[in-house]
Amino acid sequence: MTLDESQESDVVFTDRGIQYLIEKNLFEEVKPVKVDFTRSFRGSGFQLTSNLSKRPAFGDGCSSC
């Protein structure tokens, strides 16, 4: 996740008062996308769940994620 300005090539949605942007092409591949804030004994942070996480570990995935 990064901070960014909305572009024409983005899908924009708001959940619980927070605005999210995702590139349209990527959104079509990974939807639905779920964003949760979690807390555990290891700390807290955002957890993203999408169809991208269901892709095989090797192959044409995101190498910088």
Features:
mainly beta; two-stranded antiparallel ribbon; 11% helix; 65 residues
Layout of secondary structure:
Blueprint: E1 10-15, E2 18-23, H1 24-30, E3 34-40, E4 43-49
Number of strands: 4
Give the end-to-end Cα distance, rounded to a whole number of Å. 9 Å
Low-confidence parts = none
Q: Major sheet, described briefly? A: 2 strands, antiparallel
Strand order of the largest sheet: 1-2
What value does the average pLDDT take? 81
How many DSSP H or I helices?
1
Coarse morphology: globular
Q: N-to-C SSE series? A: EEHEE
Strand fraction: 35-45%
Q: What value does the Rg take, in angstroms?
A: 13 Å
User: What is the SS-derived class?
Assistant: mainly beta
Residues in helix, % = 10-25%
How is this structure best described in words?
The chain is mainly beta and 65 residues long. The protein has a domain at 10-54. 11% of the residues lie in helices and 40% in strands. The protein is built from one helix and four strands, in the order ββαββ. It has one helix spanning 24-30, and strands at 10-15, 18-23, 34-40, 43-49. The strands form two sheets. Strands 1-2 form a two-stranded antiparallel sheet. The chain has a two-stranded antiparallel ribbon with strand order 3-4. A hairpin with a 2-residue loop joins strand 1 (10-15) and strand 2 (18-23). The longest helix is centred in the middle third of the chain and has 7 residues, at 24-30. The model has no long low-confidence stretch (mean pLDDT 81).
